[in-house]
Design goal:
Chains A, B: It comes from Aquimarina addita. Two copies of one chain form a homodimer. With about 325 residues, the first copy, chain A, is α/β, with parallel strands linked by helices. Chain A is built from twelve helices and twelve strands. The structure holds a DNA duplex (16 and 16 nucleotides).
DNA sequence: TTGAAAGCGATACCAT
DNA sequence: ATGGTATCGCTTTCAA
């Protein structure tokens, strides 16, 4: 790699001090440096195609202008979309985004956080993995700015931006009840994460308000790590039991993707045999024969807010925490009839 | 942010020099430092929870251990999947990935490259945008290591990893011919990018070998920036003309996504009314009523090879260039019958 | 208006 | 075996 041009090179060529060059190049016109000298330096800098070394700047300033984004899996459309929004928003503040996927595993998440802290990121945007509470607390203790997205921990006070998961599934379940479904199944992840708990709670609350009590047998929980192995059995339990459900609410779009495949394989028709509502849209559903009713999360707002809050927190470390909860909307289609 | 622990802090607490601390912490046991002192330093370092400042290391070593990934759009599943593979592979070498989306625009691509160069990335993995040839040449001239993926420029000698686009569409078109289709349409992007040209060439070659000459009216080109505005008209021109095609080859999965929606809207059935082959798989096709024949790109190989080659190039700047072309496979399903 | 020099944190050469 | 010190590129204080 050809050696890079530094302030020193410019200073030598111009026959001035490094300091003067620095002044001109960073402060612009009102640098205190004389106009002719100023011009000369600018000219040489551009001739030499000078590019400031961001690393050196960072070492000196203590700011890297980079943020670490940790999600479950960057290849998951939900997170890929958020990543794009975060990228664009971060660029507005001149921040760079470095990313990592935790695969919902605390150990990977922990490694990533350490890795990124060593690289001196100025802050984090994190969709925290199961059992990562301690890591988040550690971040807090070290006063490293961060914003949680998608999920958060109600027991600790942090910045977060998420949707109102409880209301979202509450409304969705109500919709299914209104459509005349009495037995409604829920397929969720087997997780203590707050967003998942809230989705389950919203479902239960709606059932209760309808005067029933939520049945354990209608709530199926699937392990993150063995989705494909468990989903068929859980779907079967819901729709093939003695008292089968007439509707299913899927707590994420990945669950729905595989769940619907099973429903199709069983030759059951949506919505005639089973009504369906899905949490989150996905391109995959574009071609489903029955247009799906789904809960639409405010991705753009989540992403932009997260960046705004993080950057603000980085600039003003004593700012009070921001906890943003944004409503999702229920997009009604045929599948919930 | 609580001030970070530095070598100096450890040195002070241990009553030794910074140099000794550095030796112990970087060289391990055979550091030349006495065993007792060694232990003492290690103990204090871990007590203080010392984390080396990667920025300082980078400044000193001239290596940032980060690579810039520039794709068209990180939220596009194709690139999101590649990003994940690159992330995992980079981690094996202790590299961090920072990413940016060019939206297929040369201007954005150029900004990103500059931005990342300033941040001292050690190298790039780039899916080059239209008209970005000059930027790539500039990278070359500056001796900055990079590997192109997905597309490359045949007129310049660079590292690249791509699939054999020509063979892929050649075989796909042949398949459609074998299935008895005489008029075959191609929907591609209106782009000079090599991968797109090769996909078009492969199609033409297959038609020629079948003893026909490719008709201009059967080849439809769509602008990147106005896909949704143009696709319906192009599909219509293919299937509703006086001499309609009986099969369509889509040059990317995004084109197919919208093209198939149009075909459905026209009440045409796949494959009875129109046979279809798609370049690349996508979750979106999982639910298409007719299982689609598609060209499966070797994503994993492309991603891992790109990282391997880049890291090798960073370590050995004089190494000769690697140009890797990996076959895609045609996954045959109902839609091409 | 200009510049010398300290310092950011870590490494490595060269003394002792 | 241990440590002083120059160095990476840049910013900023202080002095001239």
């Amino acid at each position: 790699m050809a050696k890079k041009v530094s302030l020193k090179d410019i200073a030598q060529k111009a026959g001035v001090s490094i300091a003067s060059v620095s002044y001109v190049l960073t402060k612009g016109n009102n640098s205190g440096v004389g106009p002719e000298l100023s011009e000369k330096i600018k000219k040489i800098a551009s001739e030499l195609n000078y590019r400031p070394n961001q690393i050196a700047k960072s070492l000196q300033s203590g700011k890297s202008y980079s943020i670490g984004l940790i999600v479950a899996d960057i290849s998951n459309p939900f997170f890929a979309n958020i990543a794009r929004i975060i990228e664009d928003q971060a660029k507005k503040y001149n921040y760079t985004v470095i990313f990592g996927s935790s695969d919902e595993m605390a150990s990977k998440s922990s490694d990533l956080i350490t890795f990124f802290v060593n690289r001196q990121v100025d802050g984090f945007i994190i969709a925290p993995a199961e059992d990562s509470l301690e890591q988040i607390k550690a971040l807090q203790k070290q006063n490293i700015p961060f914003v949680l997205i998608d999920r958060y921990f109600p027991e600790i006070d942090t910045n977060y931006v998420a949707t109102d998961n409880f209301m979202a599934t509450f409304k969705a379940t109500n919709k299914l009840i209104e459509s005349g479904n009495s037995e409604i199944g829920l397929i969720a992840y087997n997780s203590e994460l707050y967003h998942m708990q809230e989705r389950i709670n919203g479902y239960c609350k709606a059932i209760e308000e309808a005067g029933c009590s939520p049945k354990k047998s209608n709530i199926k929980k699937i392990d993150f790590s063995s989705l494909k192995e468990q989903i068929n059995k859980k779907v079967d339990e819901l729709v093939l039991s003695d008292n089968p459900v007439s509707a299913i609410l899927f707590a994420t779009n990945t669950l729905a993707l595989y769940g619907l495949k099973r429903i199709d394989a069983l030759k059951l028709k949506v919505p005639d045999d089973v009504s369906v509502i899905v949490f989150d849209a996905a391109e995959a559903f574009d071609f489903y024969y029955c247009p799906l009713t789904y809960i639409k999360q405010p991705l753009f707002e989540i992403g932009t807010n997260a960046v705004d809050i993080l950057v603000d927190q980085i600039d003003k470390p004593n700012k009070k925490l921001s906890q943003v909860c944004i409503k999702s909307t229920l997009v009604e289609n045929e599948s919930s009839k």
